[in-house]
Write the C-alpha cells for this entry.
Amino acid sequence: MKIGFIGLGHMGNPMARNLAKHGHALKVYDVVPELARKLAEQGCEVATSAVDCARGVEMVVTMLPSSPHVRSVYLGEYGVLAAIAPGTPIVDCSTIDPLTAREVAMDAKAKGCPMIDAPVSGGVAGAEAATLTFMVGGDVPDFERSKAVLQCMGKNVVHCGGSGNGQVAKICNNMMLAIEMIATAEGMTLAAQLGMDPKVFASIVNTSSGRCWSSDTYNPFPGVLENVPASRDYAGGFGADLMLKDLTLVTDAAKSARQPVLLGALAQQIYQKHSVDGHGGKDFSSVILQYMKA
Amino acid sequence: MKIGFIGLGHMGNPMARNLAKHGHALKVYDVVPELARKLAEQGCEVATSAVDCARGVEMVVTMLPSSPHVRSVYLGEYGVLAAIAPGTPIVDCSTIDPLTAREVAMDAKAKGCPMIDAPVSGGVAGAEAATLTFMVGGDVPDFERSKAVLQCMGKNVVHCGGSGNGQVAKICNNMMLAIEMIATAEGMTLAAQLGMDPKVFASIVNTSSGRCWSSDTYNPFPGVLENVPASRDYAGGFGADLMLKDLTLVTDAAKSARQPVLLGALAQQIYQKHSVDGHGGKDFSSVILQYMKA
Amino acid sequence: MKIGFIGLGHMGNPMARNLAKHGHALKVYDVVPELARKLAEQGCEVATSAVDCARGVEMVVTMLPSSPHVRSVYLGEYGVLAAIAPGTPIVDCSTIDPLTAREVAMDAKAKGCPMIDAPVSGGVAGAEAATLTFMVGGDVPDFERSKAVLQCMGKNVVHCGGSGNGQVAKICNNMMLAIEMIATAEGMTLAAQLGMDPKVFASIVNTSSGRCWSSDTYNPFPGVLENVPASRDYAGGFGADLMLKDLTLVTDAAKSARQPVLLGALAQQIYQKHSVDGHGGKDFSSVILQYMKA
Amino acid sequence: MKIGFIGLGHMGNPMARNLAKHGHALKVYDVVPELARKLAEQGCEVATSAVDCARGVEMVVTMLPSSPHVRSVYLGEYGVLAAIAPGTPIVDCSTIDPLTAREVAMDAKAKGCPMIDAPVSGGVAGAEAATLTFMVGGDVPDFERSKAVLQCMGKNVVHCGGSGNGQVAKICNNMMLAIEMIATAEGMTLAAQLGMDPKVFASIVNTSSGRCWSSDTYNPFPGVLENVPASRDYAGGFGADLMLKDLTLVTDAAKSARQPVLLGALAQQIYQKHSVDGHGGKDFSSVILQYMKA
C-alpha cells in the first residue's frame, strides 16, 4: 500500500520504518527537513509539504506532538484535507484532546475520508520494537480496515468505540496511572519511614488490595524491582514531562466535560512541581523523589 | 490450648468461634456483657474483666476498635499486663497506629510476654469464613509460635518484620487502596462523561498500565463487574467509614513520621466529605458517588 | 467621541448605556440582534456586523465571554482588524487568557491600532452603577488616552503594566479570592463545629492574621454579616460558575507558564464539584455549602 | 498576687518576667532546671516540681509545648490538680487541641478550680514586648478575673466563648492564615511568571477582593514589603515548623469533629514537605520557596 506519513520525530521515525519493513511504499513529511531526509536514505519518497504528502497515497498516517499541530496539518488552506482524495482512510496516532480529535474526524468525514484516532502506549522502545498498543476510536469498519497497517507498528490494536474514544482511553488510563504511581510513591516511602523493609512491603501490597501496575511491575522505590527505571537512576522509560503533558490534556478535558477530578488535578500539580524542580527528563516514576529527603 | 479472647464485636465474635471450632478452650471478655454471653452459649468460659480473662490462659488474643482501647485493655492498674503470667504470648489483631503497637509490645516484653501485632484484612465475611489475611509484626520466633493459632482464623499469615510492622503494612496498603479506588472512580466517570462505554474502558485499563485491584477486581462503576458492591447499591463490603478510620490512622502516622502524603491526605478528606454526606455505612467503593450527578 | 461597542450582554449593555449617558455617540453590535435593538431604543446606531461596527468610529470597545469569541471578533477575514482604520484605539474589557490578549494586541499593533486589555471587577451591579474597577494592560500612553472613556463606566482605572497584564492581575487576584473564600468556609464551619459562635470567631479572625476580604467583607457563613449573599440564600453577587470560569482560565495559564498552583487547582476542582452539585448559579460564597451537612 | 508559673521556654521565660515586672510574686518550675535557675536570678522562687509549684499560690499559669505535656502537668498522681488548693484559678497559655483543653478544664472544675485556656499569638517578640494577644476560652467571670494578669503579658485579651474556644479560635485562625499565605505565594509567583511586576500586582490585590493579611502585611515575595521576613531571607518571624504544628493540631481536630478541610489538609502537607526540604526553621512565609525555581 502507498502510505503518506507525516510527523517523523522520536516516535514517528521508527513507526514509519516499521511500515516500510513490511513492504509498504512510504511518502514522508516533517516540518524539519532533516527528519524526512533520514528516511529518504531508507528509500522513502520525500514530500514537499503536508498537503503534498497526502496526494497520490492510499492512506495517511500522522504522529504529531499536540492538538494545534493536528489542526494545522489537517485543516485550513494548506491542510491535508484540502488535497486528499475522497475515500482515503486517515489514521492519527497523536495523543491529543478528544474534542479536537472528533472535530478533525468530522471534517475528514465531510470530505469523504474515514478517519480514526489511534494514540499509542509503549514509548520509543515500543515504537522501535513494533510492540506498541494502539487505542483506536472510530467506526468498526474503519477500525477493521486499518488494523493490518497498525499491526506492522504494534502488537495490540484495541477498539475503544466511536471517534475520539482512542484519546479518551489513553488519557483517562494515564490519569489513573499517574495517580497510582504517586500513591505507590507515598505508600512505599511512608512504610519505609515507619520502619518497614521496602521489598517486604511491596511483596505484601502486591498480593493485597493495594496492588497496581505501578507497585508490581514498575515500582518507583530503588532496589525493589530489577530492570525498571528506579534501578538505574530513573533513566529511560516514560518521561515525567510526557506524563505532565498527558495530565494537562486530561484535566483540560475534565474541565470541558465539567467533571471533577480532584486527585487527577493534584497529580498534575505534583508533576508540574517535579518538572520545575528539574526532573522532567527523568522517567515518570522519579516522582518518588518528591517524597525523599535530599 | 487455653486462649483468652478480648473484644467480641462483628470481627471478634466469628474469630473466637473459629478458634473454638478448632478445639481451643476459650475464655472470653467484652465490655458489653451480652457479647460475651453469646459465646457462653457456645461453650466458652466468660471472664469477669479483661484482667481476669488473661489469668490462667496460655495465650491472649485481642480484637479492639482503636488505639485508646488497646492501651486501656493492656496498660494501667486494671490492664492485662498487670495480671498476665510471664511468658504468655500475646496477639493483638486490632488495627491501630504503629507507635502505640510498639509501645504496648515493649511493655509486654518488659513483663516477659512476647507480643505480636496482627491486624487483618478480609472483613466480617473473611472472619466468618476463616479466610482472613493476618499482617504480623514481631520477632520471627514469636511469629512462628502464633502461626498455627492464626491459621484457625485465616488463610494467609504474612510476616512483615519487627514489632508494629503489621500495622504499618495494613495502613500503608489501605492508603494506597483508598487513593487507587478514588483514581478509578475519577477515571471511570470521566471516561463515561467523555463518551466511552464504562465496560470497554475498564477492559482496556485492566490490560494496561492503569490497572489496579480497584479497577480489575472491585470496580466502583455500577454494572462493570458482577458480584461487587457497585452492583448492589454499595451494600456489604468494606464500609466507607472503616476506610475513613484507616485513612485517619495513616495520615496521623505520616505526621508523626514527618512524611508528606499529599494524595493520602486528600483521599482522607474526600472520604470525610463522603461520610458527612451520609454515605459512611456504604461500601467504600461508593466514593464514586462523589463524582456522579445527583 | 464616536465609539463602536461589541458585546451587549449583562455586562456590555449597562456599560454601553453609561458611555451614551456621558454624551458619546455609540455604534453597537451583538450576534444576538435583540440585544442591539434594546440599545437602538436608547438612540444608539446599530451595526450590521462586528466589522461594520468598527468602521467610521474613533474607538472600539469589546465585552465578550471568552478567548475564542475575542479571537473570532478581531481576527480572520470578517474580523474587526480587517476593517478598522489604522490608529483607532481598541479596548477589550473581556476576561480572557493573557496569551490570547497579547496575541490579539500584537496583531492590532501590526495594523497601527493601539490595543489595551481592560478586564473588570464589580459585576453587573458595578456595571449598572458605573462603579467597575478596570485592570488595564498596555503601554502607558494608550492607558492614559483611554482613561476618560473607562471612567464613564467605572470608578477605578488601574494600570497593571504591559499588554496582557490586565488579564494577569484579574485572574491571579481571583485565584487568591477563590482560595481565600474556601479557606474562610473551612475555618468558619470548623470553628462552629468545634463549638464556637460564628460571629465571635469572625470578629477575632478579622482583627487577626487570618483576616481577608472573604472573612471581613463577604463572609460566607449565614448571619455573620448583613447585606451579603450569605444572608439571602446566596442570591445575587458573583456567580459560582463565573468563578469556576476564572479558575479554569488561571489554572490553564499556570500550566502554560509551567508554574505549580496546588491550592488553585484544588479550588478549581471544588468549584467544579459545587457546579455539578447544582449550585453554579448561586453566589460564589455558597461554596461553604460543600462543608455543611445537608 | 502570688503566681505559680510552669513552663519556662522561649515563650514562658519572658512572660514570667513580665509578670514579675508588674510586681507579682512568682514561684516557677520547668523540667529543665537551668530554665528555672535563670528566673531565680531575677528573684523568683524555684519550685521542686509541678505539684510543688501549685502549692501556696493564688493562681497557676502554664505555658507548655503540647497536649501530652498539659495532661502530664495537670493530671495523674503527680499532677497540679492533685495538690492545688480548691478555688485557685488556672490559666493555660499552651496551644493544644480543644478536646484536651476541655477535658483538663473539667477535671480542674471538679477540684473547684476555675480554669481558662488562653493560647497566644505574637511569638517570642510579642512575649518579650508584652504585646501578645490572648484568645481566651472559659466562663465570663473567670475570664474577667484573669484579665488583669494577662494584661501584664499582652495587649489584647479576647473572650472567645466557653472552655476550649481559645484553642478553637487560635487553630482555626492559623489554618486560614496558612492557606492564605500559600494562596498569596501561588498568586504572587504566578503573576510574576506571567510577566507582572510583583509590587504592582500586590498593590492591586491589596485594594481588591484578593487582599488578606498575608498579602498586605506579611507579603512572602522578596522585595514587596520592607521589614518582613521575606526581605531578610525569611529569618525571624513565625517558624514554618510552628505553623506545621498548628496545622497538625487543626487537621486532627477536624478529623475528630468529622468536618472536611480540603485546603487545610493540603496546606498541612505542603508545610510538611517544606519541612522535609529543610526549611522548617525559617519564617512560615518561606513556603513561597516551594513555588520558585532553585
Remarks:
- Chain B touches chain A through 65 residues (CB under 8 Å).
